[in-house]
Amino acid sequence: MSNSYGKIFRITTFGESHGQSVGVIIDGCPAGLEITAEEIQRELDRRRPGQSNITTQRKEEDEIIILSGLYENKTTGTPIALMVNNKNQAGKDYSHLEHAFRPSHADYTYTAKYGLRDHRGGGRSSARETLARVAAGAVANKYLQQQGIQIASYVSTVGPISVEESYEQLNLSLIDSNKIRCPQPQVAEEMIKLVEETRKNRDTVGGVITCVIKGTPVGLGEPAFDKLHAELGKAMLSINAVKGFEYGSGFAGAKLYGSQHNDEFYTDENGRVQTRTNHSGGIQGGISNGQDIYFRVAFKPVATILQPQTSINDQGESITLEGKGRHDPCVLPRAVPIVDAMVALVLIDFLLRQRTVRV
After folding, report:
1. Which residues define the annotated binding site?
2. Global confidence as pTM
């Protein structure tokens, strides 16, 4: 089972949804990086369940515990071990799923592959594992900020409701000003109302998160395998419930002619190479070109719904299931810090790898 990600800045996560703890080991973090427990906790709080009436009502404080790798708020160059204890476990809420395969969950495929599974909240395949990524991403992001790199993700679509403005037209400082994490206040209100109605209907709804990365230097990524956009796509598609990824002009670019799509170069007044447009999304030939990197990630509706559904059990017999327990009617608000974290993990690894490519 693959539980690790990254080549130089490498994380290994552990834990299950209703096990004792969830955590991460970070290898390859440079020594001397200043970071406090409060800075890591701030990102965990953005992902924490129960933070509003439009997220799961599971009550977890998600208090970070630093086991090793930091001394007097500085990384030491040794493995960093971070963990959170699960306190609001309710395994009995899932007893009816011990032998059932929930529609569009990992229950069937996980059992078919490994021959057994922890049915409590999805076990290892639960999105609670992403808590560990967010903790590691907080460390990575602190390093990136010192390099002048800024990451901003926001909810741009919920169901049929979308932000029409481009990211350049939005005030991204407003992302955390509302509980849906959309920087367009009027659209945010419509999205929140839709999620609240969806919860009342005992259903779920999906949407899209847009991410913008500013300050990326030229040269990150590889020309053949390990293209930067491919690695970002892999990172995003590793997040639970993600069904689509497109960067730059994406699928819309397929409708344009080359004369319309090409990004013309010029040299600005400071002698820096720029492009007049950015259909490339800041990446050309798999390598960052110094322009803004931007992409969109599509999330499906949460698979667990509080309505009767037909499925089968592990004996192949037809059954009727109805969701119980505590679940998100829309995963997007809590997925924003997860997208931020995975971007940070991709970029810090490429930044450290970049140090090895030239004398």
Report:
1. 47, 124-126, 240-241, 285, 300-304, 326
2. 0.95
State residue 93 phi and psi, 5-degree precision. -65, -15
Residues 6+ away with beta carbon under 8 Å from 86: 15, 17, 18, 19, 20, 21, 22, 60, 128
Q: How far apart (Å, rounded) are the C-alpha atoms in residues 164 and 210?
A: 12
Q: How many C-alpha atoms does 6 have within 13 Å on its Cβ side? A: 29
Task: Please give the Cα distance from 305 to 134 (Å, whole number).
Answer: 26
- Residue with tokens 């996560």, as numbered in its chain: 13
Q: What is the CATH number of domain 4-355?
A: 3.60.150.10
Phi, psi of 146 (to 5 degrees): -70, -20
Contact predicate 210/294, CB 8 Å: yes
**In degrees rounded to 5, what are phi and psi of residue 287?**
-125, 140
Residues flagged as binding site for FMN: 124-126, 240-241, 285, 300-304, 326
How do the domains of the chain map onto residue ranges?
Answer: 4-355
Q: Whole-angstrom Cα distance, residue 238 to residue 336?
A: 14
Q: Which residues are annotated as a binding site for NADP(+)?
A: 47
Nearest to 339 by CA among 247, 250, 235, 249: 235
Q: pLDDT by residue (tens digit) across 196-225? A: 999 999 999 999 999 999 999 999 999 999
pLDDT at 19: 86
16: DSSP letter: -
Give the residue among 300, 175, 297, 172 at the shortest CA–CA distance from 247.
297
